[in-house]
Specification:
It is a single chain. The chain has about 90 residues and is of the alpha+beta class. Helix content is about 15%, strand content about 20%. It has 1 helix and 3 strands. It has one helix at about 5-15, and strands at about 20-25, 35-40, 45-50. The protein has a 3-stranded antiparallel beta sheet with strand order 1-2-3, covered by helices on one side. Strand 2 (about 35-40) and strand 3 (about 45-50) form a beta hairpin.
Amino acid sequence: MRPARVQHLLLDAAAGLPGVSARTFADTGQSRHPFGVVVESDGRTSRWQVAIMSAPGETWGSEDDPAPSLGEKPLAMEVPAPGPAGAPR
């Protein structure tokens, strides 16, 4: 799967979470890494770089590869609140 497609899947996944916003590195002016997302939630920002490596003998495919099928997207997801530090999850 090409890095641009992985980046798109990450943006779609983040869009389904309440209180979360996500943008590409390019949208935030970051140019050091070509693919990645910046995720903001509860006043915190995290950056996820997309790095892809194919297995020996495999190719990345072509631009006209069919999109992956991930099933039905839920309308909303319940996000658990963080517990006290050191508490089991």
